[in-house]
Design goal:
Elements: H1 3-10, E1 12-16, H2 21-24, E2 27-28, E3 31-32, H3 40-43, H4 48-51, H5 65-74, E4 79-85, H6 112-123, E5 126-131, H7 170-188, E6 194-197, H8 205-218, E7 223-224, E8 236-237, E9 270-274, H9 292-304, E10 307-313, H10 323-332
Parallel strand pairs: 1-4, 1-10, 4-5, 5-6, 6-7, 8-9, 9-10
Antiparallel strand pairs: 2-3
Amino acid sequence: MDNRFWFRQAGYGMMAHWGLYSLLAGEYRGRRCTTYAEWIQSCMAIPNAEYEQLAKCFDPMYFDADEWIRLAKDAGMEYFVFTSKHHDGFAMFRSAADPFNIVDATPFKRDVVEELANACARHGLKFGLYYSQELDWHHFHGGGYDRQTPCAGVSWDNSWDYPEREKKKFSVCFEEKIKPQVAEILKNYGDLCLIWFDVPYTITPDQSKELFEMVKKYQPECLINSRLGNGAYDYVSLGDNEYPEAPPSGDIQADPNELDGYKYSPYGLYETAGTLNSSWGFKYYDQNWITAETVVARREKLNSYGINYLLNVGPDGLGRIPSFSQEVLRKAAR
């Protein structure tokens, strides 16, 4: 089946933000993170040398890929999107490009992306992967150093370990890490329904095009969201927790400060990614849960406009999806 047709019919999916940041749960040295939990390294300017130590503690004994995917299935979702690498640069899969990954750097030593891919295949869900293609706080040349707009941390790039921005060249990070890791996730985990890129700014048009063409080379049916940047995409990711009051229409560019840069999809494919509370990653004290009724209302409204609803969960450091999330999702199922 053409994935564009499938995507248009899917309507509802689950996203999961899970990584080393889940261990901190929104708190660092007696201070609470005031922004998203997955941004805690930047929010608190945690040095890489210290952040790397979290990997030695990451051994999530309760992680069960089948349990996660069964929840998504029970909730009525059609696809599952997982954070293979977030802005902290830690890969949740085995990577030959960088040993800073869950197999090589942790006592867990299991490839989470592989287990989730296999679970999706067993339970009949489409599988997609999030990958932060520009921001990488673990790499000296990670992008975002030329962006001055506000963010969820002290800076878009790692300015606390690597303050000499004039020496940074994103092309180095792009060649050394980004391209090899994108190739790995495309080649090693079976059919992907989509790649969910994020936060383009430093990335050049040629680099966006190169990643777009790489995806299509290895997986021609894999859809690419608009946050790859520079107009290279198959479908539009609307703003985080964006719930429009009217259907998207017209070939109209968005505000230039928008992360995706465009609000028009040539294929009529749109998606809103939303949270169940106020964070994407796990934050133990964030109890600002939306209700099942709100989930149902948002889903119905978005779907009536032809927009998919990708609803996020933030598992904790032990690999558990919080009971609050599970209760809402099951109650909102139909």
